[in-house]
Backbone:
């Protein structure tokens, strides 16, 4: 059932349930009981598909450990190989729930795309680091604020995203006929994205010729509840 039809059925079921309760209080009888039963059945049948109630995958601790042990050496070795060769690369991040959209782009689509190209910055203990874009931070007292252009006192930073290993389904280091960059197939289960955390990172090196790392200066503000609700309405089908 489509999201639109499912939402109509769900709201209609709630309305029928509520009206039947009032009906049963005002005029007890067999008919309002039937209405209560049908309303409850409609709610229960569509509960999991209603966009407000969608939940991320539930992984057991054992499953999370297994996925981390599976992907940690893969991405660590890949990043070390890039560092030895003094190369950087972009990756194509793809949503496993919308595989068939690739390589097309839906211009009318809202929210995060089903696939996109970002920088691969390396890995950390429980995931990979992606570089989303460059921007600038200006410090106002104890608060860092983003500015899209350079100004006196600003710091150039990368918006860094952490993708946990348990959100990764597959990794194709060779790319395909459309894009030769590596492809990372992810579950977009963190408010419509694969990112568990985003922060502003300043590019640094421990010593010359060492791999770059990105020191966290501030967290990227999380989407508002309105933004999250919009994503659930447009993406949970």
Residues:
């Amino acid at each position: 059932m489509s999201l639109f039809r499912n939402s109509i059925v769900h709201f209609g079921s709630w309305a029928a349930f509520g009206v039947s309760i009032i009906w049963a209080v005002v005029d007890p009888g067999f008919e309002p009981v039937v209405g209560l039963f049908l309303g409850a059945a409609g709610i229960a049948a569509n509960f999991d598909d209603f966009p407000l109630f969608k939940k991320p995958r539930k992984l057991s601790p054992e499953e999370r450990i297994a996925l981390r042990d599976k992907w940690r050496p893969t991405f660590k070795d890949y990043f070390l190989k890039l560092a030895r060769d003094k190369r950087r690369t972009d990756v194509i991040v793809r949503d496993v729930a919308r595989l068939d959209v690739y390589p097309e782009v839906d211009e009318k689509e809202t929210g995060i795309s089903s696939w996109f190209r970002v920088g691969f910055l390396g890995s950390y203990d429980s995931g990979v680091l992606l570089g989303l874009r460059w921007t600038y931070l200006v410090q106002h007292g104890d608060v860092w604020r983003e500015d899209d252009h350079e100004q006196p006192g600003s710091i150039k930073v990368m918006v860094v995203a952490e993708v946990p290993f348990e959100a990764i389904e597959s990794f194709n280091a060779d790319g395909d006929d459309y894009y030769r960059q590596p492809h990372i197939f992810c579950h977009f289960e963190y408010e419509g994205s694969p990112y568990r955390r985003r922060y502003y990172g300043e590019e640094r090196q421990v010593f010359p010729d060492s791999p770059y790392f990105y020191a966290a200066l501030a967290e990227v503000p999380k989407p508002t509840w309105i933004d999250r609700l919009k994503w659930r309405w447009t993406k949970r089908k």
Observations:
- The two ends are 8 Å apart (CA to CA).
